[in-house]
Amino acid sequence: MDDGGPKYVQYDSSKESIYLAAIRQLISNDLSEPYSIYVYRYFLYQWGDLCFLALDKHDGLLGVVISKLEIHRGGPLRGYIAMLAVKKEYRGKGIATRLVRMAIDIMIERDADEIALETEVTNTAAMKLYERLGFLRSKRLHRYYLNGNSAFRFVLFVKESAFTSRLGYDDDEDDDNPPELPPSA
Asked: Is 140 helix (H, G, I), strand (E, B) or coil?
């Protein structure tokens, strides 16, 4: 962090007493859902190594991404980006992109087939970020959030098998004409 830019670190459960309150405050300022302490602990206790923080030179929290990775409904190994927040005054500096990229990279290293997330339909900055990173809109979820707003589910297909299985193709069906992958895959 010699240039005065943010320092990026993996969440460390031994520092929960330092960071959990700051994470909760940042997320509650930015996201419309009122998450309880148990929701944070659900993610951080099981998948803390998939969560990343952006810190200032005094170790103050600038941004956070909270993620998980597990088998989805008996099918693909799905990464999930549950929460992403960056302090308002630090937006537009690439912090969110870097945090999401770090989460994506570690999920890919751990053999994720796909990575999913939801974002409010009104959050155009987030939608542009995810589309730039190769996510595709997979469906609209009406009145998804407690505030009544709808969401878009986005999916990043990491492996061709995850993409083709979503389209209903089997490996032994029509091998001569497989569907085309999106440009980002």
From this structure: strand
